[in-house]
Amino acid sequence: MALLPILRYPDPRLAKVAAPVEKVDDGIRTLARNMAETMYEAPGIGLAATQVNVHKQVIVIDVSETKDDLLVLINPQITHRDGLQVGEEGCLSVPGIYDKVERAEHVTVRFLDMDGQPRTLEADGLLAVCIQHELDHLQGKVFVDYLSQLKQGRIKAKLAKQARITA
Ligand code: K1U
Ligand code: ZN
């Protein structure tokens, strides 16, 4: 397995739209395993292929306390959403920044599993938030895009300063 470098906001590659996976083969399974290793090591509760500069519709999620409940969602599509929740979000591509975002409380998502089998998942609470956050990445959207222009400018300045310090 391998750790993959994570793109940092405002890298323009984070704005690319991911293509559907045509065949769930060993290449996709290796990508998903490497993404999972990268997510656990970060640590985070989700990761989209876009964030590791692979523009295919693959996400990994584990919101469990024990970090032993990995979900791999290939070609995920939200087929139903209802309710509203507002929660604090973070992002491995926007390190050190957290802010409130409004999301659906409950979602139904259809996807392919690691064997290429179609599955349906019902999610609410943090899992629903994480699914929506990761699906946004596949559409080229980062959670800070929901914030005001003023906040986005401040976040870009803060990350640019961090990058200068660590360079
Ligand atoms: O997509 C990502 O960048 C991963 C992101 C997912 C996410 C977090 C919070 C709300 C919505 C989506 C993260 O995992 S940020 C790190 C994080 O939340 C976390 C890190 C360690 C322990 C617990 C949570
Ligand atoms: Zn993110």
For the record, what CATH class applies?
Alpha Beta
Mean pLDDT, nearest integer?
97
Order of strands across the main sheet: 1-2-3-6-7
Proportion of residues in helical segments: 25-40%
Strand content: 25-35%
The molecules bound to the chains, other than polymers, are: ligand K1U, zinc ion
Enumerate the spans where pLDDT stays under 50 for 5 or more consecutive residues. none
Describe the structure.
The radius of gyration is 15 Å and the shape is globular. Strands 1-2-3-6-7 form a 5-stranded antiparallel sheet. A two-stranded antiparallel sheet has the order 4-5. It is 29% helix and 26% strand. It has one domain (12-166): Alpha-Beta Complex (Peptide Deformylase). The longest helix is centred in the C-terminal third of the chain and has 18 residues, at 149-166. The chain contains 3 helices and 7 strands. With 167 residues, the chain is of the alpha+beta class.
Can I get a quick summary?
The chain is an alpha+beta fold and about 170 residues long. The chain has helices at about 25-40, 125-140, 150-165, and strands spanning about 45-50, 60, 70-80, 85-90, 100-105, 105-110, 120-125.
Key features of this structure:
167 residues; globular; alpha+beta; two-stranded antiparallel sheet; 3 helices; binds ligand K1U; binds zinc ion; 26% strand; Peptide Deformylase
